[in-house]
Amino acid sequence: MTSKTVLIVYAHQSAGSFNAAVKDAAVDELKKQGCRVIVSDLYDMNFKTTATEDDITGAVMNPNHFCYGNETMLAWQEGRLASDIVDEHKKLKEADLVIFQFPMYWFSVPAIMKGWMDRVLTLGFAYTLEKCYSEGIFRDKKAMLSFTTGSHETMFSSNGINGDMNVTLWPIQNGVLNYCGFQVLAPQIFWAPTHLSPEAREGLLESWRTRLQGLLNEAPLTFPPADIFDKGKGFQLKPEVREKQADSPFGLTVGQHLEKPLPPQSQMKAGV
Amino acid sequence: MTSKTVLIVYAHQSAGSFNAAVKDAAVDELKKQGCRVIVSDLYDMNFKTTATEDDITGAVMNPNHFCYGNETMLAWQEGRLASDIVDEHKKLKEADLVIFQFPMYWFSVPAIMKGWMDRVLTLGFAYTLEKCYSEGIFRDKKAMLSFTTGSHETMFSSNGINGDMNVTLWPIQNGVLNYCGFQVLAPQIFWAPTHLSPEAREGLLESWRTRLQGLLNEAPLTFPPADIFDKGKGFQLKPEVREKQADSPFGLTVGQHLEKPLPPQSQMKAGV
Known about the structure:
homodimer; alpha/beta; Rossmann fold; six-stranded parallel β-sheet; two-stranded antiparallel sheet
């Protein structure tokens, strides 16, 4: 077995939290397998969250109209990015798998983790307009979300008050992870752990440990290959693919739903 | 006409940006109508983005397991929240309409704006488990997203490479704005303005100015009332509502899709 490197991007304020226990379980279990595990503990690092000119050493290209994407791409090419971004780039380059561990805040990642995404997934380094989705720069890497919710699972169903979790996950799993080319593993969702007994929480950790044993060999979620979209026609689905899909009772994905019912659990389970 | 107060939460680094021009157009046009306009210019304020113990003055309740929601609720009740949060609370209380103005980063708001949401929409002040969605604390206020994209409109369609924008908007418009009770106005989307000529951009600003003239009287997007979900049964749709919906070709919303096709444009247009 070749030794793999796993980067855990971790966002909880407290070492006494359930998120910390989940992260620690991942570190232990993956090390047992011989993995090298790197943790970016964002609160502990006091990780800078905002996308500003300070992310660039030296002069910016266009001080009158600072455009973060273009400016940081140039700084990356010229080796003038802030050192904390460079550090994360190095970890990301070495990682075979990236686990994002966080409590869900407002149907999304906490701001400090969004800041990591905004600043570390630099234009040029993590994606270009040509190299994205299935042709993305990180297509040989895997990534996954592992998170706790405040709401119960029933509330995040397609007839629950929060709506289908598959919909809520789409912008992050497709728009961030799949966009950069990552093979996206099924999310690990810990439903409302604060409402559980210590024993029930320990049970959740135990099933997480079990999953971790096979995690690196899991098949990823299904996303459409980039080449079924027509670059010359606004990156819309090619007519022949659309025709082929006509017989299916479901859309292709949550986002490419083609005015059909969403494919069930497509952002939650591999192979569906 | 009673004078209304509008809060613009604005996140762009540069006064020379198109986002700045959009924000300035809103300030001008709304003032012309006699509105009081307050701008929270997040980058300019160097707004703190991370949800940490520093948001609380004095001792925290549980230093071994710091839980941001509970700790800040207590601090809010006891008047011990950080002054920058208190300042935003004051603006929010006075506002009849909140406009979030930003460039879309990674299918969502920039981290600095997510930080505003994470920190300012305090448990107790902005929501409780009882007071949410249509029974939410801000149900007499309106809110909307106004943003620029990097991608063209065709790419964010239901057969485009980024998937349906209605899906991407759901977690923010439902999970943040509707959750707090806001009446959510249709988003103002400026598709890929950097790819346009200065004249075309001016045209976009002109239609924005036109929309602003009637903005405060617009009907909001449709979200289901909270009382159609059964609190005693995991906040799932009541069977009688589900039955009533059986004849419809569409689901209720993007999130409550009931395994049917999504209602077209429901996160983009009012009255659909």
